[in-house]
Specification:
5-stranded parallel β-sheet; 18% strand; 426 residues; globular; alpha/beta
Length: 426
């Protein structure tokens, strides 16, 4: 990781930049696959599953027998861990369910808002270099709480045409209604357009590589709802002189091991800390199974030393990290001044990994600076909010003249007449 000591504000734009992809070339490749899925359905799905995953699939939908086999292959220890995580995630997300609160804006004029679940949602779960079964909990649990009728899941099969047992076990536990052995661009296309085997959904959720991300973006342009714009995973750590270098190194590596385009940033006010952290990184890297991926990700990463917390906070808020760890004294007070972040972790014993798995908060978060305008996934992500209003005759009389005056000023006479006709004594 390259170290920058007290960089001037003029240097910040370059330091705030994420890894860049050739979007035009990528979109062209992705569009070709999406178009084939739209036109050829299952035939295209089988072709691309052979080409990209090396698997020959006759039936994409996972059977009851496959679920039963998977259940027997997951250890009791892992089942207990998944169940604990599910409990915490459900407990946290239950607090997000809103009760309608009617408001009488004037006598006889009542307005309120109610949630209606999105009926069909699709969840994409990566299964290549890391089978992210934890993400199933983060998406299917709030979807179930919201009341979604259909929750379908797509995940890429291995060369034998099978899914990781933990993915199937977690899907059963979290309330997924159907699972399909289908990955990559073709999975996004299938959920967006529908095929002979895979039903079209109303909204698509879930992380993925650059191809999946591009596919979600392209189907969104065609009218399909998605959870949020996304890019590679990222973490930013703010640390002062009280921080433990080995803790920080572990946090940086926990994101770096996601993939070569992930980014890990350390912001500090302690001039001695960068050397300690780089030493700890080198030591911990040696023991990582995904060492090569993490090393390449660290090439996209950096350490920045600022003179004080004010300058550090200014940089932190401009970066708008997916994950922000405040490894410092006074973390609670500092957190009140964080304006842009997906999820914030306070103190020396709040690793980002806790949020990824079992604290209860959602780990599906905006990346690539989108935290400036987007929130992470919640129960709200799986509902539409419908407004209602009910007026009595007295209520309409209270606001009728205002409505008529405004409608006529806009030149919309029929709007005005819809009120007038009700106020005429018959």
């Amino acid at each position: 990781m390259k170290i920058f000591n007290q960089p001037e504000p003029a240097e910040w734009p370059a330091l705030l930049a994420r890894p860049v992809m050739d979007a035009a070339s990528l979109d062209k490749k992705v569009s070709r696959v999406l178009d084939a899925v739209r036109r050829k359905g299952d035939r295209a799905l089988r072709r691309y599953t052979r080409e990209f995953d090396g698997a020959r699939i006759k039936k994409f939908k996972v059977t009851a027998k496959e679920f039963a086999t998977a259940d027997n292959k997951v250890s009791e220890e892992l089942k207990a861990a998944i169940q604990l995580a599910r409990f915490n995630i459900e407990r946290f997300h239950q607090t997000q369910i809103e009760t309608p609160k009617p408001v009488e804006t004037m006598p006889g004029v009542r307005c309120w808002r109610e949630n209606r679940a999105i009926e069909k949602v699709g969840i994409y779960i990566p299964g290549g270099t890391a089978p992210l079964f934890s993400t199933i909990l983060m998406l299917a649990v709030p979807a179930s709480l919201a009341g979604c009728k259909e929750i379908i899941l797509c995940s890429p099969p291995n060369e034998e045409g099978k899914l990781h047992p933990a993915i199937l076990y977690t899907a059963m536990l979290a309330g997924v209604t159907a699972v399909y052995k289908l990955g990559g661009i073709q999975a996004i296309g299938a959920m967006a357009y529908g095929t002979e085997s895979v039903p079209a959904v109303n909204k698509i959720f879930g992380p993925g590589n650059q191809y999946v991300t591009a596919a979600k973006k392209l189907v969104q342009q065609e009218g399909m709802a998605i959870d949020m714009p996304a890019g590679p995973s990222e973490v930013m750590v703010f640390a002062d002189e009280t921080a433990d270098a080995s803790f920080i190194a572990a946090d940086l590596l926990s994101q770096a091991e996601h993939g070569i385009d992930s980014q890990a940033i350390l912001v500090t006010t302690d001039k001695q800390l960068p050397k300690k952290v780089t030493t700890a990184l080198a030591k911990q890297l040696e023991n990582l199974p995904r060492k090569e991926l993490a090393e390449k990700a660290l090439d996209n990463s950096r350490i920045l030393v600022f003179k004080d917390r004010e300058e550090s906070l200014a940089f932190i808020n401009q970066y708008a990290a997916e994950h922000l760890i405040l490894a410092c004294t006074g973390a609670e007070e500092m957190a009140t001044r964080v304006l842009q972040a997906g999820s914030v972790f306070l103190g020396h014993y709040s690793p980002e990994s806790a949020g990824d798995y079992a604290s209860g908060a959602n780990h599906t978060l905006p990346t690539n600076g989108y935290a400036k305008a987007y929130s992470g996934v919640s129960v709200d992500s799986f509902v539409k909010k419908i407004t209602f209003q009910q007026l009595s005759k007295d209520g309409l009389e209270h606001i009728g003249n205002a409505v008529i005056a405004m409608a006529e000023a806009e030149g919309l006479q029929a709007h005005a007449e819809a009120v007038k006709v009700r106020l005429i004594e018959k």
